[in-house]
Every structure is written in C-alpha cells, then in structure tokens.
Write the structure tokens for this entry.
Amino acid sequence: MCRLQTNEPSRSRGFTLIELLVVIAIIGVLVGLLLPAVQQAREAARRSSCTNKLKQMQLAMLNYESTNQKFPAQGCSPEIRQIHPNPRSSRRWGFIPSLLPYLEQLPLHTSLITLIETNSDARPWREDTAHRGVTRTELTEILCPSDPNTSRTSGPNQTPGRTSYRICRGDKRLEANEARKRGVGVTGYKRKVGLGGIGNGEIEDLTKIIPQTVKIKDITDGTSNTISLGEARISIASGDSRGGGYGIGAGSNGGNPAPSICAALVGTDGKYSSYTTNGSQAPGVRWADSEEGFTSFFTFAAPNYPRCGTGNENWACLPPSSYHPGGAVMAHVDGSVKFYNDNINAGDPTAGGTNAGWTGQSERGVFGALGSINGGEVNLAD
C-alpha cells in the first residue's frame, strides 16, 4: 500500500489578542497580590535592623555607665568642659560624642577631642571645614534604614551628620541646658542655687555649678520599666506631619504646654499650617548637638504625635516617632528593646503639665511614666 507524503509545513497555533490580554491581566493581579507582601517583608527587615542598632546603642550606654559610673551627659559635659579652651563654648555637646568609643568609632572620637582641644570656638553647629570633617560624618550606626531622610542634602552647605536615635529626657519638657533630673538624659552640671538653665555665665564659673549625673542606682522605677533611648524621624524641613515635618507657631520657650497645640496646626491633608524651612534647625540633623530637638525626645505625648515649636530651636512637643507603621521602637535602660504603639496611654493631650517640683508620678499616663526614672510607677512595660 502506497502512502502519500506531503511537504506542507505544520502550523503552530499562536495566542490570540484576547488570550494575551488575559495573561497580562493575571500577571497584574499576581503582582498586585505579591507587592504588599514584598513591601511588608522589606519593612520588617528594615525595622529589625533599626531595632538591632538601637539595642547596640543602649549596650554602648551601659558600657559607658559601667566604665564611668554614670550615663553620658546630654549637654554641659564635665569631660568636655575640662578640655575645652573656652568653657562658654562647651555647653551644647550632647551624649553621642561621649558614646563614640563604645560604638566602635574611636578614631572619630579622637578627631572630635582634637577639634575641641585646639579650637576655642568649637561648637556642634559650626560650619567651617574643621567642624564639617567631624560633626558631619555620617554614622550608619545611628541611622534607621526605615527613615528615607537619612541621606545628606546636596550643595556646599550640607546638612550636618544626622541621627535617628535620641535620648529620653523624661515626661516633662526641658530646655537643652535646663538641669532638671527627670529622664536618663540630663545635663552634666546643675546650678548650686536655683533650678534654671546652665548659661554661658554658669558654665564658665565653677563656683556656680556642681556636677550632675544619672547612675543605674538613680533609676528607682526599675531599669526594665524606664525608657533610655528611642527613635524619631529626621526632619527635612517639610510641612508634612507624616514625613518628618515640624510645625511652627505654637508653644513657648519653657513650661509644659499641652501637646494638642501641635495637633491643632495639622490640617486634614496631614500638613502643618506653618512650618520651618530652615534645614539647619530641623530635628535630628546634628548628632553632636544637645539642643533638645536634635538628639532628645520626651514621653509627654504618644509616639508619632505631631511635633512643633515657635522656631529658632524652641520646641514645644518632641515625641518619639518613626516610619514603622503604628508606632516606634524604644530601648529600655536594661538593654531590652520594645515597640510602642501610637495609641499607648499618654494622658490627656489637651492638658498642660505642671512642674510640681519635677518629682512624683507622671501626669502623662503609662507612656509618661516609662520616660521618668523615679516617678514611683511599676510594672508599666508588661
């Protein structure tokens, strides 16, 4: 039997346009389903890194305390005053410079000490070349990867080295050189007479001041119940309250204003009605500076509550904050690190605080109590 063979090529069936569109639609749906999961995984990794960095920083605090029998001073450091050729210029050096050797930054610390010893006007905000080579050094150890504002700005007048991590000064608002002992962060000197801030005249005259410290034994509320360090958004001189902004037009240079005065500046679009555009005064932009907005926070308002002031480095409300959804990370004195939600009890935000001798239980709820070292509250962090 004879079989006929044909030389016609076989035809492969291609996709129709409709089939192609269906495939593209399916891929789009899958991407839409997977993208949030990928983003969440990335943020989880960033938050884990941020948490680990904060823990290492608190371990550095504990190592410093073990070596020096006190925590580093937040301004008016006796150690810096002793080596500074001009005591009047020594007031504003904060706690991070003292921690540098414990953060594996001994060469930078050596450069900083040399700068201070050889420059009668060495201050953390100076813009000259000598300062820029030290205080504008970017330290990855103190930058949270979740904060998009950790990079420098461009131009010759660059923003100084930034920090995501700040020291807790307690549950009541304090000026940078106000020598009251409520949180872990305190000035290294206090007046012999009166409770006012340490000015140029006081820091220059040792007959008017005496050293002040916070030691482990001073934290009578318990090291596991007391916040030492926390994170706060680095400001970009923006009006966006959710993106590192800082409102202007409320508060005063002193006292304990109601936190709600800052919330009143925020519109329905999440932006402050008035805000600073001065990047050099923005919170978090100077890791070496003890001025409260740069390296301090307070627990008289819940995490991520709006922050504001009157401008010119006069802050009214400076809570911890972050880009993690729903809260911020804090390190306790004992080295434990915890995430605190935005809705933690922080008292009535419409009520102003009272000084009440700066002693006794906090007026700012659970969160306020966690920020004080000796308020008498217990079992708050459970």
The chain has a mean pLDDT of 85. The chain has nine helices and ten strands.
